[in-house]
Design brief:
246 residues, alpha+beta, paralog of FGE (formylglycine-generating enzyme), 9 strands, globular
């Protein structure tokens, strides 16, 4: 089976307006009250901060079933389920990390890995601190979330109008995406933000939300996690990152 080349997007060095200002958290909870997400869930994305993020590359779309199938065949793992052009889901963090290392070894490209949480948000948000990858207003039809009513994954890249400022696709909906970052409160987090999410199935942060999630998870600042053991049911997948080309 042939390895498909990664469609890389070059993300320039720049300043990330990470997270949400603490004073805005009640407003965010009110804006998305229809999702019934309690205010305390949003507090872990506070306070806002400006961070310098070095240049890097990120895959335009998540890893697909077809791409994962090559890895599974080469390493004796079970074959993935679903159409080849859909994102692979049900992948644990260790398995996603193993895929990155395997692909790097097979292609000779060093530094293939999962994106950090800050890199993911930078790729989704761009330079202006927008609410969603496409802008500040939510619009049904720009991402595969629960409001679309599909109930499962769609082919990667199916929503080009929902692209981030850098042209990265599917950063909201379709598959919730692993990052390389372990959960911890941001420095200066509001009182009551947990030091550890010991109810999570895995301690790593996921971003973007999946087909089964509500619109609040499409927000660029929203920090999430794998809170159920059935990673296929909750739609957990991943995409690749790599150092910038010198």
């Amino acid at each position: 089976m042939q390895i498909e080349p990664v469609d890389w997007v070059e993300i320039p060095a720049g300043v990330l307006r990470r997270g949400t200002p603490t004073q805005d958290i009640p407003l965010v909870a009110e804006r998305y009250a229809a999702t019934r997400v309690p205010e305390e869930w949003y507090r872990k994305e506070a306070p806002s901060a400006e961070l310098d993020v070095p240049a890097f590359r990120i895959a335009r779309t998540p890893v697909t079933v077809a791409q994962w199938a090559v890895f599974a065949d080469a390493t004796g793992r079970p074959a993935p389920r679903g159409p080849g052009d859909h994102p692979v889901i049900g992948v644990g963090w260790d398995e996603a990390d193993a895929y990155c290392r395997w692909l790097g070894e097979r292609t000779g490209e060093s530094g293939l890995r999962l994106p950090t949480e800050e890199e993911w948000e930078r790729a989704a948000r761009g330079d202006d601190g927008r609410e969603f990858p496409w802008g500040d207003e939510y619009r049904t039809g720009l991402a595969n979330l629960v409001d679309l009513g599909v109930g499962t994954t769609t082919p990667v890249g199916s929503f080009p109008e929902g692209a981030s400022p850098f042209g990265v696709l599917d950063m909201a909906g379709n598959a919730d995406e692993w990052t390389a970052t372990l959960y911890a409160p941001y420095a200066g987090a509001p009182e009551g933000v947990p030091e550890v999410e010991d109810w999570a199935f895995d301690p790593h942060i996921t971003r973007g939300g999946a087909f089964r999630h509500d619109v609040d998870l499409a927000r660029c600042a929203r920090r999430h996690g794998a809170y159920e053991e059935d990673l296929a049911a909750i739609g957990v997948g991943f995409r690749l990152a790599a150092p910038a080309v010198p």
